[in-house]
Amino acid sequence: MAASGGATASEGTPRRDFLNLVTASFAAVGVGAVAWPFIASMQPARDVLALASTDVDLAPIAAGQAITVMWRGKPIFVRSRTPQEIEAARAAPLSELKDPATDQSRIQRDPWLIVIGICTHLGCVPLGQKPTDPRGDYGGWFCPCHGSHYDTSGRIRKGPAPLNLAVPPYAFTSDTKIRIG
Amino acid sequence: MSIGLHNSDIPNPVLRWIDQRMPVFTMMQKEYGSFPTPRNFNYFWNFGALAMVNLVIMIATGVFLAMHYTPHTSMAFDSVERIMRDVNYGWLLRYVHANGASMFFIVVYVHIWRGMYYGSYKAPRELLWMLGVVIFLLMMATAFMGYVLPWGQMSFWGATVITNLFSAFPVVGEWIVQLLWGGFSVDNPTLNRFFALHYLLPFVIVGVVFLHVVALHITGSNNPLGIEPKGPQDTLPFHPYYTAKDSFGLVIYFIVFAVLVFFAPNYLGHPDNYIPANPLVTPAHIVPEWYFLPFYAILRAVPDKLGGVLLMFGSIAVLFVLPWLDGSPVRSMRFRPIARIAFLLWTVAFFVLLYCGGKPAEEPYVTISRIAAAYYFAYFLVILPLLARLEKPLPLPESIARAVLGGGPLPGGAAAKPMEKA
């Protein structure tokens, strides 16, 4: 880019650099400001966020039974554990666990265990909700995709998954009702 | 051209490595850096770049809107309302897209007007001009189908009226209409295919724009004097002179665009399109979007179905042969005193048609439309061919440099004599 005002080139150079820099910065800020609404539009919309909580009635669930409910498009395992299952979960020494967590830290009220039913390995839904399902070596859940075994507290005990089944945020709204999310 | 690595002079070693194997940087430097451009552009020459930017805006907003839109008759309207209310910045994307269509037509109409006033369609730029007309046609098809997508009352009845245009053709008419509809009325199959085509056509436009630019860079740009540059004294490198000038125009364009989007987003739309489509009730006053009104007025000016349709299509088809209708070797209207007045009158006729197209089909608008439509065609088919023989043009300047710098052909002839501005 040959400047026609060559006589003042040496004097004008720092000023030209400054102008270039200011112009480029201004353009960068502008591009960022324009890009933001586009990126934000891909985040969950307000109607999606409005569906972010799920109410569950626990009354019909018998001891030893489990149900699956949907929360944010994901399966939530709600299990009414038997006293033996609770005892098994609490008896496991923390040193044996891959992702150490006490059973008490994962529940709010006995006998209810509420976890997100998505294997922490690669996102499959583990088996174990139905009485006829395989429940793995530890009586909790078994993920058929890559063979992860979860115990009766939903903790990873064996297989490739790195973490325990996650506990969703929830609260008891009465003795027999919870709200997830 | 020889086979082998390109002899690149890009200083940066990484860019040079790429450039030797794929000389895109050399090409950009040649076509947009040092590209010799007439030194006397006025601001009318901004509008090609503005149209390019507008096309990019339309595709970007359109792709993001398509992530939220549902092309089904039972869900389309609600999905658009969801974009307006629930999707983050959905209102912004939609208003930019909807008003972007209007901005696109404003920009392209000015671009076409400039080409007609300064004779940019004449040899050797005929193909460049014709590719531009193709882009204009594709734009009209894309805009029409886009307007159908929200599935409001205007969408539905606009689609019904425009597709029915094709029923005017004898023998094949009904068959074409059924083909467009995918049924026996405008319905879900129509909406579905219009969405698919509305997504496709902009990329076809990108392709034709590329050819348009290729053709432009062979002949070089026309200029307000309509005479060819005779040497380096008549041109400037595109960068930084016209990148800067285009940037300035772009800022003005963005201001106008922003005023529309943020302060009058529905000014150019129709309230009826916020009523969901109802195949049983036609709105009392149905008109197309403003940018189609001149052609709609021509359609309505003819008291015959087939005649109206033919004249309407003819009003655009005539642009294809404009380079051969206007046989005058003088390009710029600055040097054609009679043609200049005739063309400015044509411009008035265009606006009169635009105005009448938005009015009800009753007197006096019908008669006014007929007069304006008659002049619209007379300009192309009678006045221009006759003036090519009869008109005596003003003397052309010797060169661009002499005309704009006043002095000799050398740049820096700053001892500018007051020169006739032409």
Automatic annotation (TrEMBL), chain A:
Its EC number is 7.1.1.8. Residues 83-179 form the Rieske domain. Keywords: 2Fe-2S, Cell membrane, Disulfide bond, Electron transport, Iron, Iron-sulfur, Membrane, Metal-binding, Translocase, Transmembrane, Transmembrane helix, Transport. PROSITE patterns: RIESKE, TAT. It is found in: Cell membrane. GO terms for molecular function: 2 iron, 2 sulfur cluster binding; metal ion binding; quinol-cytochrome-c reductase activity. The keyword Ribosomal protein does not apply. Its cofactor is [2Fe-2S] cluster. GO terms for cellular component: plasma membrane. It holds the Pfam family Rieske. Binds 1 [2Fe-2S] cluster per subunit. Its main location: membrane. It catalyses: a quinol + 2 Fe(III)-[cytochrome c](out) = a quinone + 2 Fe(II)-[cytochrome c](out) + 2 H(+)(out). It is a single-pass membrane protein. The chain crosses the membrane at residues 18-39. The main subunits of complex b-c1 are: cytochrome b, cytochrome c1 and the Rieske protein. Belongs to the Rieske iron-sulfur protein family. The Rieske protein is a high potential 2Fe-2S protein. Component of the ubiquinol-cytochrome c reductase complex (complex III or cytochrome b-c1 complex), which is a respiratory chain that generates an electrochemical potential coupled to ATP synthesis. This is Ubiquinol-cytochrome c reductase iron-sulfur subunit. It comes from Neoroseomonas marina.
Automatic annotation (TrEMBL), chain B:
Binds 2 heme groups non-covalently. The keyword Flavoprotein does not apply. One of its GO terms (cellular component) is respiratory chain complex III. Keywords: Electron transport, Heme, Iron, Membrane, Metal-binding, Respiratory chain, Transmembrane, Transmembrane helix, Transport. Coiled coil: none annotated. Heme b b562 binds at residues 97, 198. The main subunits of complex b-c1 are: cytochrome b, cytochrome c1 and the Rieske protein. This is Cytochrome b. It comes from Neoroseomonas marina.
